[in-house]
From TrEMBL:
The keyword Metal-binding applies. GO terms for molecular function: histidinol-phosphatase activity. InterPro entries: His_9_proposed (IPR011809), Inositol_monoP_superfamily (IPR051090), Inositol_monophosphatase-like (IPR000760). Pfam families: Inositol_P (PF00459). Keywords: Hydrolase, Magnesium, Metal-binding. Belongs to the inositol monophosphatase superfamily. This is Histidinol-phosphatase. Its cofactor is Mg(2+). Its EC number is 3.1.3.15. The keyword tRNA processing does not apply. It comes from Thalassococcus lentus.
Length: 268
């Protein structure tokens, strides 16, 4: 990386941290608050959004308007804004709003920076426990109130020794659920309901696999960047890029990734 690029990377990381700080400040007054208003985005089902989601995205967009006004933006709550730099900030102000409503600290703020090739930098931030996971542009580290460290994924080789996470037990369609169960039955431990925090744990070397379906670009681009920087792999269920969302496999290493793909697709 040239000195010029290093300076640019440093600036971009500084902007991303400023956005994460702004989102924290906007969200925390609402977490575990009584009488928090909730809207449902779906007529059939439940996809909640709160005033905290909207306030956090506005806060991040305000930072970009001041510091990087020419960049593009793609946010969950306020959509797309075209830019002229070739860079786009992909924002999920609260990934895991259901967990937020339930009072669990498994939700997080997702910030990704993408170019034409896909995500090149990401932040997974959990405001309530004050942990921030950063990956890309020469960074792979986390920090929180109890310290911090370099992000490095695990070296687990076989599914029989792997820890697998997903958000919903009823993942995807019946066929997708069957694929997930084939992987799950081969794993040592399976846990549910961790939202974006599961991806942070994978990057931090605590777990081995995350498998999900039905994701959007703003759900996965930040985890892609963070996990890749830590040495892991994130693709769709066929092993292709998954920058635009869909069915996701995040793995600590290539051996586990290959094993998970084989089991996911064994029923075809």
């Amino acid at each position: 990386m040239t000195k010029e690029h290093q300076q640019s990377a440093s600036e971009l990381i500084e902007v991303a941290n400023a956005m994460a700080d702004a989102a924290r400040a906007a969200i925390l007054p609402y977490f575990r608050a009584t009488g928090l208003g909730v809207e449902n985005k779906l007529s059939d089902g439940f996809d909640p959004v709160t005033v905290a989601d909207k306030a956090a995205e506005r806060a991040m967009r305000d930072v970009l308007a001041e510091l990087r006004p020419a960049d593009g933006i793609f946010g969950e709550e306020y959509g797309q804004q075209e830019g002229s730099t070739g860079l786009t900030w992909v924002l999920d102000p609260i990934d895991g709003t259901r967990g937020f409503l339930a009072g669990t600290p498994t939700w997080g703020v997702l910030i990704a920076l993408s170019d034409a090739s896909g995500p090149i930098f990401g932040i997974i931030d959990q405001p309530y426990v004050s942990e921030r996971f950063i990956g890309g542009l020469g960074r792979a580290d986390w920090a929180g109130p109890h310290g911090g460290a370099t992000l490095v994924t695990r070296t687990t080789k076989g599914l029989e020794d792997a820890i697998l996470f997903t958000t919903f037990p009823e993942i995807g369609t019946p066929q997708e659920r069957a694929g997930f169960e084939r992987v799950a039955q081969d794993c040592k431990l399976v846990r549910y309901g961790m939202d974006c925090y599961a991806y942070a744990l994978l990057a931090a070397g605590q777990i081995d696999l995350v498998i999900e379906a039905g994701l959007n670009a703003y759900d996965i681009q930040a985890p892609i960047a963070v996990i890749k920087a830590a040495g892991g792999i994130v693709t769709d269920w066929e092993g292709n890029p998954v920058h635009d969302g869909g069915r996701v496999v995040a793995a600590a290493n290539s051996a586990l990734h290959a094993a998970a793909l084989e089991r996911l697709n064994a029923g075809r």
